[in-house]
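Work Package 3 (structural annotation) set out to generate three-dimensional models for the target panel prioritized at the project kickoff. During this period the team completed the workflow that converts sequence records into discrete structure tokens, so that structures can be stored uniformly alongside our sequence database. As a representative example, we reproduce one entry of 179 residues exactly as it appears in the project archive.
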Amino acid sequence: MSLIKTKSPYTKELIKSAFWREKSLNDMTRPEWEAICDGCARCCLHKFINDETQTEDFAPTDHIKQGEEILYTNIGCYLLNDKTCACTQYNKRTELVPDCVTLTKDNLADIFFMPPSCSYRRLHENKGLAHWHPLLNNGKKSKMHQLGITVRNRVVNESNIDLNDFEDYIVAWPLDSIE
């Protein structure tokens, strides 16, 4: 699999403008929207809904019902580069992985499946960016790696395991919200 080198969304101009302090998510331009992503790759982990009453097979969903709980695993999408914490096929990801969710201004209200540390979720919940966000650290993710925010060195690739054994890979750390 070849890596597609993408330009960092954290440009000097965007960092200097501090747009996230003044603009709502709905008012952001495309480059600003892309820069809100902190690049942790927790959204690239397989998640399952735990419901003792469920009898049907696993299927993608856009909502969670009362009594259900989201279980995160340390199983990463096959497109994830676990060193850079970036998608190797970002521009084609929804074509290659049909249930990959693209966050948009229209579906922000339904981001229940995103971890509490997700910058889109944090801004949507009026919490602001966390101190480790690349926009607050000269566009670098090194603080995120140091604090264990990213998935670096913490995941297994879905291609290397049997997804029927997902219970063996359930983890709690994606739910940590390190402030």
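Confidence is low (pLDDT under 50) at residues 1-5.
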